[in-house]
Amino acid sequence: MVSEVLLDEALHTRMSIMACNYIYDMRGVPPLDFADFNLVHWRDRLLAECGAEWERRLTRFAIASASETLITDYLKIMAEDSSIQAICHEVTRTHAMDEWAHSSAFSFVATDIVQGLSYKEREYLRSTILKTVQMFANNELNAWAAVFSSLSFPHAQDILHDIGDSNEIGVYTNSVENLIDRIGLARQPYAEHQDVRV
Ligand SMILES: [Fe+2]
Ligand SMILES: [Fe+2]
Description:
By secondary structure, the protein is mainly alpha-helical. The protein has helices at residues 2-27, 38-48, 53-79, 86-115, 119-136, 141-151, 156-163, 169-182, 191-194. It has one domain (2-27, 37-187): Ribonucleotide Reductase, subunit A (Orthogonal Bundle). Helix 1 (2-27) packs antiparallel against helix 4 (86-115), helix 3 (53-79) runs antiparallel to helix 4 (86-115) and helix 3 packs across helix 5. The two termini are 30 Å apart. The chain binds fe (ii) ion (2 copies). One fe (ii) ion (FE2) binds at residues 9, 68, 99, 102.
């Protein structure tokens, strides 16, 4: 089951890259050369700060779990917006439908993993999932600055300045809280006493 989900994700990447290349060709714009994303730096820093292998393992799992939920929300917004370019709309709509199709498989596996964790591990996983929401909602203004500059976009500095560091965290919080409930990570007052493994 997990390998089928991974195959889906590999095909989503392929579909998205093909769509980007098509847009670059049709628009006659140079492919964007940018990989300096805040989310990637934050993930690397968090992993480097882990003091034990179990922390590294759970950090990777937390970021993957939160991202899996958050990307589906993000795609949904674009999938339902018919005012954007038709190819972007179609690609994100197809991607979103595929994410919905395998979301139950992901929750099933995550629930199974959570059941095998100690109280301390669950708390660690829960807090890292919540931290990921903050990072996922980051505006990645450096990436936008690179896009604007490669297109010589008018008033780029003004646009970046107007957006500032504000993000859209409110849009994403609910779905991650639902994920936490669904996979058995919600805080229970008696859990500390029930599980003596720390
Ligand atoms: Fe995907
Ligand atoms: Fe997915």
